[in-house]
Amino acid sequence: MVKKDDTMFIGEALIGDGDELAHVDLLIGRKDGPVGNAFANGLSQLSVGHTPLLSVIRPNLMTKPATIIIPKVTVGDLDDASKIFGPAQTAVGRAVADAVEEGIIPKNKAEEWVINASVLISPAAEDYRKIYQYNYAATKLAIKRALDGYPDMKKVLYEKDRGTHAIMGFKAIKLYEPPYLQVALDLDNEEAMARIIKQLPNRERILLEAGTPLVKKFGVGIVGKIRELAPSAFIIADLKTLDVGRVEVKMAADETADAVAISGLGTIESIEKAIHETRKQGIYSILDMMNVDNFTEKLQQINKDLMPDIVLLHRNVDLESKLRAEGKNLDDISAWGNIKEIKEITGGLAAVAGGITPEKAEEAFEKGADIIIAGRYIIGSGDPRRAAEDFLAHMPVDPNHMRVVMEDDEQI
């Protein structure tokens, strides 16, 4: 059902494959509104190589609602023009008319509305039949999506961290479905680093840490080297920054780090500045609580709007023994402290480190850990792949392992 406010509808669709692939973006709206203004401007303010044209069903018979086609790719010669003026123009015109006939566009709006359709026709496209077929399907689907209000916000929020874009060539990983295994590459040898990365399983649940020794020896540029070896990996720069955090965070972000570790020993001001910079750069902040005496108290001093995305806790066996000797309830207490309490304070994730073996992974997860950090067990192993799989055996399959991308939530 079309909403009462018909000022503007926005739709998009991609159909087909190869050079003839069709991608249509369109606006639908009243002639006396912003879409109508854009329609008139498009026909009267021409641009070299992107000349809009009315969509026709055949020569001398334009479609209704009146529709203009705007080429996305520069039309360089008559060959390119023929693809637009022939199969693409007809495909869009007939798709609009069929949308009226099928009730997608209300017939009583055919004279009130106009459509601005931006179409992609590659100069390499050769098959006119495919150009027609793909653009017909993409136009009609884009119209339906526009008038249905597809996608809704629920769909957008669900897909934003799960979907991939084929042309990107890599996947940008977000930590939306723990648990994860962080492999600490605490090495001082670049060749050893490369060898281990190549042997690790290709799993979304594996995060790669450019350990402090690597960063100190080779500089933050080592993150870029890791990125070359693992384009889709989630990479952490273990800078343990104490001061000038903004500068160091930006340096790591420029090398495509997905997260930066900040030392919890820094002042509240320096911590907040570093976290602020991670937000600005669009990457994760990890607050490393190594050697911080009372990390709960420290966290409570941080501005609630600048809480770290991840708190890193280190194993403290002495603390666990002390609490047990005092007769404290250890249901929620672990050698890493009260992980659940920490997560309640920050609203984020918790990572744990310190001599973790596969056997200890279950305990960490039960106590609330989202990320377990393993170093020597993996990088010191003769078979890094198998060592990593020892941990992965305690985790679910990757978030997208069983995912089939389908737009099956669209109304039929």
From TrEMBL:
<comment type="similarity">
    <text>In the N-terminal section; belongs to the formaldehyde-activating enzyme family.</text>
</comment>
<feature type="binding site">
    <location>
        <position position="72"/>
    </location>
    <ligand>
        <name>substrate</name>
    </ligand>
</feature>
<dbReference type="InterPro" id="IPR020868">
    <property type="entry name" value="Fae/Hps"/>
</dbReference>
<comment type="function">
    <text>Catalyzes the condensation of formaldehyde with tetrahydromethanopterin (H(4)MPT) to 5,10-methylenetetrahydromethanopterin.</text>
</comment>
<keyword id="KW-0456">Lyase</keyword>
<dbReference type="Pfam" id="PF08714">
    <property type="entry name" value="Fae"/>
</dbReference>
<comment type="similarity">
    <text>In the C-terminal section; belongs to the HPS/KGPDC family. HPS subfamily.</text>
</comment>
<dbReference type="GO" id="GO:0033982">
    <property type="term" value="F:3-dehydro-L-gulonate-6-phosphate decarboxylase activity"/>
</dbReference>
<dbReference type="GO" id="GO:0016836">
    <property type="term" value="F:hydro-lyase activity"/>
</dbReference>
<dbReference type="InterPro" id="IPR041710">
    <property type="entry name" value="HPS/KGPDC"/>
</dbReference>
<dbReference type="GO" id="GO:0043801">
    <property type="term" value="F:hexulose-6-phosphate synthase activity"/>
</dbReference>
<feature type="binding site">
    <location>
        <position position="25"/>
    </location>
    <ligand>
        <name>substrate</name>
    </ligand>
</feature>
<dbReference type="InterPro" id="IPR001754">
    <property type="entry name" value="OMPdeCOase_dom"/>
</dbReference>
<dbReference type="InterPro" id="IPR011060">
    <property type="entry name" value="RibuloseP-bd_barrel"/>
</dbReference>
<protein>
    <recommendedName>
        <fullName>Bifunctional enzyme Fae/Hps</fullName>
        <ecNumber>4.2.1.147</ecNumber>
        <ecNumber>4.1.2.43</ecNumber>
    </recommendedName>
</protein>
<dbReference type="InterPro" id="IPR013785">
    <property type="entry name" value="Aldolase_TIM"/>
</dbReference>
<dbReference type="GO" id="GO:0004590">
    <property type="term" value="F:orotidine-5'-phosphate decarboxylase activity"/>
</dbReference>
<feature type="region of interest" description="3-hexulose-6-phosphate synthase">
    <location>
        <begin position="168"/>
        <end position="412"/>
    </location>
</feature>
<dbReference type="GO" id="GO:0019854">
    <property type="term" value="P:L-ascorbic acid catabolic process"/>
</dbReference>
<dbReference type="Pfam" id="PF00215">
    <property type="entry name" value="OMPdecase"/>
</dbReference>
<keyword id="KW-0511">Multifunctional enzyme</keyword>
<feature type="binding site">
    <location>
        <position position="54"/>
    </location>
    <ligand>
        <name>substrate</name>
    </ligand>
</feature>
<feature type="binding site">
    <location>
        <position position="89"/>
    </location>
    <ligand>
        <name>substrate</name>
    </ligand>
</feature>
<dbReference type="GO" id="GO:0016840">
    <property type="term" value="F:carbon-nitrogen lyase activity"/>
</dbReference>
<keyword id="KW-0119">Carbohydrate metabolism</keyword>
<feature type="region of interest" description="Formaldehyde-activating enzyme">
    <location>
        <begin position="1"/>
        <end position="167"/>
    </location>
</feature>
<dbReference type="InterPro" id="IPR014826">
    <property type="entry name" value="HCHO-activating_enzyme"/>
</dbReference>
<dbReference type="InterPro" id="IPR037075">
    <property type="entry name" value="HCHO-activating_enzyme_sf"/>
</dbReference>
<feature type="binding site">
    <location>
        <position position="74"/>
    </location>
    <ligand>
        <name>substrate</name>
    </ligand>
</feature>
<comment type="pathway">
    <text>Carbohydrate biosynthesis; D-ribose 5-phosphate biosynthesis.</text>
</comment>
<feature type="active site" description="Proton donor">
    <location>
        <position position="23"/>
    </location>
</feature>
<feature type="domain" description="Orotidine 5'-phosphate decarboxylase">
    <location>
        <begin position="180"/>
        <end position="391"/>
    </location>
</feature>
<dbReference type="InterPro" id="IPR020568">
    <property type="entry name" value="Ribosomal_Su5_D2-typ_SF"/>
</dbReference>
<dbReference type="GO" id="GO:0016051">
    <property type="term" value="P:carbohydrate biosynthetic process"/>
</dbReference>
<comment type="function">
    <text>Catalyzes the reversible formation of ribulose-5-phosphate and formaldehyde from 3-hexulose-6-phosphate.</text>
</comment>
<dbReference type="GO" id="GO:0006207">
    <property type="term" value="P:'de novo' pyrimidine nucleobase biosynthetic process"/>
</dbReference>
